[in-house]
Design goal:
Number of strands: 24
Order of helices and strands: HEHEEEEEHEEHEEEEEEEEEEEEEEEEHH
Structural class: alpha/beta
Distance between the termini: 58 Å
Largest sheet: 17 strands, parallel
Helix content: 10-25%
Length: 330
């Protein structure tokens, strides 16, 4: 019996080691590929998740990631080489989040080196609808070197069901859209990202939705860059989707034609949320940096105030999960 027990333990140990070092599942359009769709590979992963590599190409499908520990990476030389795209709008699927091309709700989600697009606005006779490219609502999620393409409501970075914690880290990403194109109430940190406003009569980079003073959510943009198409109009840094919206720009280069006051009311004449929201900048640069002329309720931070929004402080020193992602160096 002892020999049998020892043998069983050895087998169990071997299984754990092999599972921990399992080869990633490969997705490709190649005829002999095991998986021709991203969703098929996700469904094939065990309950504890695993790694998926996607070969260069365009994959037209909706993707849902409910499992935790799912890591998806494009194997091309650059993010443009691997594209997951779909074209649902909230108007035809019965809700904004339902329109997402990729919906990731599992914790410890990783997305790297690819493009997620919602092309509803490009292919619809009625393009004025929310159409999400990426919805991410898990905790300890890392999105790096990813292009997010859409129009209205491109990125939903929010807490999970029942308001559970959702810490998210975006690094070296490109995110484009027009109205409220980064929205939600996650505790999200964006570093070295480009936010690009596409041609539209109005562009609003953020619509953060912190609903109560004690809610632990905010968006921080650290050493990012704001750009816009030449036909982008009425460009604003953000408007408060909920009364205590919190958005901070640190050392951001503002090359887009941001309006002088910077921030907008959610519904001018109907809401009065700028007085309760927390909108702040620290050492903005570029042609539309305007510290003296911003909305009076917004803040220009001192060195000491800005330090409170550094990466480690923002996540309360609990940053071990970031070591699983790419480098955080300047």
């Amino acid at each position: 019996m002892r020999i049998f027990a020892l043998f069983a333990a050895v087998l169990a140990g071997c299984f754990c080691i092999s599972a921990a070092h399992a080869q990633p599942l490969l997705v490709s359009h190649a005829e002999r590929a095991a998986y021709h769709s991203v969703q098929a590979a996700i469904d094939a992963l065990p309950a504890q998740g695993g790694d998926i590599q996607i070969a260069p190409g365009i994959y037209r499908e909706k993707v849902k990631v409910f499992k935790s520990g799912v890591h998806i990476k494009g194997s091309g030389r650059k993010p443009d080489d691997t594209v997951i795209v779909y074209g649902d709008g909230a108007i035809n699927v019965g809700g904004t989040v339902r329109s997402a091309t990729l919906d990731a709700s599992g914790d410890d989600f990783r997305l790297d080196n690819l493009t997620i697009q919602n092309d509803y606005s490009l292919n619809s006779a009625n393009p004025a609808s929310q159409a999400v490219a990426l919805s991410v609502t898990g905790d300890r999620d890392i999105i790096s070197r990813v292009r997010l393409l859409g129009a209205q409501d491109t990125l939903f970075a929010a807490k999970g069901p029942n308001g559970r914690m959702s810490r998210q880290y975006f690094l070296d990403c490109y995110i484009e859209g027009h109205v409220d194109f980064i929205f939600g109430n996650a505790k999200a940190y964006f570093r070295h990202c480009e936010l690009h406003g596409i041609a539209n009569q109005a562009v609003v980079y953020t619509a953060q939705s912190k609903a109560a003073p004690d809610e632990d959510s905010a968006y921080v943009f650290d050493h990012c860059r704001l750009t816009a198409d030449s036909a982008a109009r009425d460009v604003a840094l953000g408007r408060p989707w909920r009364p205590y919206a919190t958005v901070v720009f640190l050392s951001t280069k503002m090359d887009a034609p941001v309006v002088a006051e910077g921030w907008r009311e959610w519904a001018p004449g109907k809401t009065n949320s700028l007085r309760t929201a927390y909108y702040a900048e620290y050492k903005s640069t570029g042609v539309r940096a305007n510290p003296a002329g911003r909305e009076p309720y917004s803040h220009q931070l001192t060195d000491g105030e800005a330090a409170k929004w550094s990466l480690d402080t923002f996540f309360g020193g609990a940053t071990d999960w970031l070591s699983a992602g790419p480098s955080r160096s300047e």
